[in-house]
Amino acid sequence: METIEEFRGVDFLRSERSTNHRCRVDAIESAIKKELQQVEIKEVNYFSKGVYAREIFIPKGTVITGKIHKYDNLNIMSAGDMSVLIEDGSVVRVKAPYTVVSPPGTRRVAYAHEDTTWTTIHGTDQKDVDLIESEFIAKTPEEFALFCEEQLKLKE
What is the torsion angle, in degrees rounded to the nearest 10, for the CA atoms of residue 53, residue 87, residue 31 and residue 120? Predict the structure, then answer.
């Protein structure tokens, strides 16, 4: 597969850019689960004082959807080449080395043109991965919206 356009059943490069991004990502994720063989994504967790890093290996040819992060998070692609569907509806191609800070609520879809190593970094002293996930990740857009409402109330 040379380009994302060839991904069967999901033509997200040609879809309307005005379509709600979250709905598009959900539709793509649903199609991935129906159309493609699921790929095991290898994960390695690193811990240091005040820092947690989750490194994943994404095999060449894999279409992957990201998680909904509650806070800004630092992302580092240390190896690889990916096309990424971003919030404005465009697709950007990024090659390692690549570093980006993603804002809260970000959820993306990506296609790995090459084997890719992607690391997400969060500031925490926690060492329990399940607790870290519950602190930093919203499982649904509704959970993220509720989290945002709670944060606004705390600031009042």
Answer: 0
Q: What is the pLDDT of residues 7-34, one digit of tens each?
A: 433 444 444 443 476 677 777 777 777 7
Q: Are 94 and 84 in contact (CB under 8 A)?
A: yes
Q: Would you tell me how many other CB atoms lie within 10 Å of the CB of residue 29?
A: 17
Residue type, 1: M
Q: Is 40 exposed, middle or buried (0-12, 13-18, 19+ CB in 10 A)?
A: exposed
pLDDT recorded at residue 109: 87
pLDDT score of 98: 96
For 83-104, write each residue's pLDDT tens digit. 998 878 788 999 999 999 999 9
Whole-angstrom distance, CA of residue 47 vs CA of residue 43: 13
Return d(Cα 82, Cα 137) in angstroms, integer.
23
Total number of domains constituting the chain: 1
Residue 111 forms beta bridges with which residues?
63, 83
Alpha-carbon span 18 to 22, nearest angstrom: 11
Residue given tokens 């690193």 in the structure block: 46
Domain that holds residue 96: 4-155
Report the CATH number at residue 39.
Answer: 2.60.120.10
